[in-house]
Amino acid sequence: MEVVISLTLMAVIIVLMMGGFRLGVSAWEKGERGVESRQRYRIVLDLVNTQIISVVPVVDPSQMNFKGDAKSMAFCSMFSIVPGNGSVPVYVKYRVGTEKTGEGESLFLFEKNLLFVKASADDAMDVEREDFVRLISGAVEIHFEYLPEMPDKGKVEWLESWDWNENKKMPSAVKLFIKKKSSEDPVVVIARIESKGFKVDP
C-alpha cells in the first residue's frame, strides 16, 4: 500500500512539473514571438522614415511629385525598400487600407524604378491593389500628416494633405501615426525633409 501511495504521489508531482514546464516553454515562445514582432516593427518604421527623408523632386514639377493625404502618399525617393528594384530613384506610393479579415488597418507600399513608371502623375497614382506590399497590419489607426514649415517656436500645425503642384515645394516634415492597440500609446514617426533646392518659384 505504501508503495502504491508513493508511486501515486510521484506521478502527481511529475504531472504538475510537466504542466509547469509546458507553461514556461509556452510563455518563452510567446515572448520570443513578441520580441521578433517588435524588432520587425522598428525595422519597417526605420526604412519608411529613411525613404521619406530621401524624397527627391523629378525634373518636371508637374509629374509624379509629392502628393499625399491622410490615407495615401506618393513621391519619388532616392532610397529603395523593395528588393530587386536595384538602381534609384524609385516611384513610391503608400496606402492605408482595411484588412479583409476585419483585423484593423494596414500600411501598404508600392515601389517601382522611376525609369519604368509612366510619366503622367495621374497614371502613376493608379496602382493595382495587388501590386502593393503589406508593411504593417492589424493597427487600430494609421494616417499621415504634413508640416508646412518647421517653426522656431509656437504651435506646430499639421495638415491632412499636401500637393507639390499647389504648394510648389516639399513639406517640411511628414508624420506617420500608428496606433496598434486601443490600450497602447500610438507610435509616431516624424520624417524631416531637407527641402533646400526643392522649392519651385510660381
Q: Can you give a write-up of this model?
A:
Helix content is 30%, strand content 27%. With 202 residues, the chain is α+β, with helices and mostly antiparallel strands. Strands 5-4-3-2-1-7 form a 6-stranded antiparallel sheet. The chain has a 3-stranded antiparallel sheet with strand order 6-8-9, with helices on one face. The longest helix is centred in the N-terminal third of the chain and has 52 residues, at 2-53. The radius of gyration is 25 Å and the shape is elongated.
Could you name the key traits of this structure?
202 residues; alpha+beta; three-stranded antiparallel β-sheet; 9 strands; disordered C terminus
Question: Can you summarize this structure?
Answer:
By secondary structure, the protein is an alpha+beta fold. The protein has helices spanning 2-53, 121-125, 164-167; strands at residues 67-68, 72-77, 90-98, 105-113, 133-139, 141-147, 162-163, 173-179, 187-192. It contains three helices and nine strands, in the order αββββαβββαββ.
